[in-house]
Write a structure and sequence with these properties.
By secondary structure, this protein is of the alpha/beta class. It has four helices and eleven strands; from the N terminus they run αββαβββαβαβββββ. About 25% of the residues lie in helices and about 40% in strands. Strands 3-4-5-6-7-11 form a six-stranded mixed beta sheet. The protein has one domain: Restriction endonuclease-like alpha-beta roll domain (Restriction endonuclease-like alpha-beta roll fold, Roll), CATH 3.10.640.
């Protein structure tokens, strides 16, 4: 008699948390200025920091066709992606520390693949272990975002945020102030 209640409670506990985000992107390096009203689902196993790094990844490559994928919920989809009108994948963005195998698989499916690392020393160790093999992947960009822990402190269910990108720097503005992030480009795409 109590089993359905237990199953229902477990099912409710593993649902994603939905965030409504108004994001203003001012990318002076790309001459891209746009307001985005986003709905972002945070996977139950995802940290606030990782969710915010996904949002920064969106800001770095923002355009009208870029969308959030299922990411942690589905191995066949990235954290962010952009497709052309035929359904071909133009841009595949992974956040975190994906496996070399997953990156090679994505590189075979997409025109451009971007890996956005975070986590400080853990990201540095991941790059040291994987860089030799990944440097051979022509359509791959690897970016490390150091010092992203502070991003977790600004998370709210309804968030107004602005990202100003200029000269390789990102200034994240929010209601309580601002944060500066300096992306480190570890690998850029090779010339074909």
């Amino acid at each position: 008699m109590h089993a359905p209640l237990i199953i229902q409670t477990i099912a409710m506990a593993i649902k994603s948390t939905i965030y409504k985000i108004d994001l203003q992107v001012s990318d002076m390096d790309r001459n891209y200025y746009q307001q985005h009203s986003l709905t972002l689902a945070k996977h139950p196993s995802e940290t606030d920091e990782r969710m915010m790094v996904r949002l920064i990844g969106f800001a770095m490559y923002a355009n009208a066709a870029l969308i959030f994928g299922k990411g942690l919920s589905d191995d066949e989809e990235p954290d962010l992606w952009q497709k052309d009108l035929t359904g071909a994948i133009e841009l595949w963005i992974e956040v975190g520390l994906p496996t070399e195998r997953d990156i090679r698989k994505a590189a075979g499916r997409a025109k451009q693949v971007v890996v956005v690392l975070y986590g400080g020393r853990t990201a540095d160790m991941w790059w040291a272990q994987n860089s030799k093999a990944l440097l051979k992947t022509n359509n791959l960009t690897v970016i490390n975002l150091p010092d992203t822990k502070a991003l977790a402190s600004i998370v709210e269910r309804g968030l107004n945020i602005s990202c100003t990108l200029q000269d390789g720097q990102i200034m994240v503005g929010h209601d309580a102030g601002s944060l500066d992030i300096t992306p480190v480009i570890l690998k850029e795409p090779s010339a074909y």
